[in-house]
Amino acid sequence: MAQIPVKVLRRKQEALDIASFELARPDGGALPAFSAGSHIDVQVPGGLTRQYSLCNDAAENHRYRIAVLRDANSRGGSAAMHEALKEGDTLLISEPRNHFPLVHAQRTLLFAGGIGVTPLLAMAQRLATSGADFTLHYSTRSAERTAFRDEIGASAYADRVRFHFDDGEAAQKLDLAAELGAPQPGTHLYVCGPTGFIDFVVKTAQGLGWPQEQVHLEYFGAAPQDTTGDRAFQVKIASSGAVYDIPADQTVVHALQEHGIEILTSCEQGVCGTCITRVLQGECDHRDLYFTDEEKAANDQFTPCCSRAKSPLLVLDL
Asked: Where would I find the 2Fe-2S ferredoxin-type domain in this sequence (predicted)?
């Protein structure tokens, strides 16, 4: 994938533990076009690659804006962005990709949990520009942790946004069942945020009879996996016939890397789909949040950054 050098034009503290970064080409040239819901890969200081959603207006081509939550349990990415990246610095990013696109709908309901507001902010901007019928519900722990609150309040769509604070009065808290109601054919739901928040929204919608095709989601991170029962297995490389052992305490990506076989990764949590690899033989133990249940059942591809094998051997199309 093509890499684009960009400069940090502006860094701004948007809320407690959340900073935004405005990125542009050093020469001021146009950046590749993107659509609401898109993300970019960012090579963060220290050599890691992480994905961040674009949260500026998709009509803009002179800049990209991302926002990063400093995670107390950071694996290095968010800490590096907060501690090492400053205005004037340069870094490499990918072209935008969109696994979370808006579809045409009579009505759109957006549910953001914390930093999950970033792709939904771009969606709200797009929907408002097109005159669409939508509502954005933005849930956070407290007002001081609510990024872009003033920006939203000053926007043309401010009356379409409902804020919900965990530490606020009961009357302003999210009554999800009431907001969702019975599903309507022309209404689509989008949700992004922590795993628990997404599961809450999706399961409530399912309980109310919402069809799967009208519910769209994007995870920002995977829940911790219970690895106590993990066992070793083997992987065979179809092109060479070589067979490698995958220890119980090591991922397929890292085990193969030790033998000089590189698989492109980004999130390393089974969220982004960057590392998807075709499976020619064997049974997968899917642990990702990327594939649908139907795609997992097909058993013809998996995410080697986190998924494993139920069978003794997996044959990979590498």
From this structure: 233-318
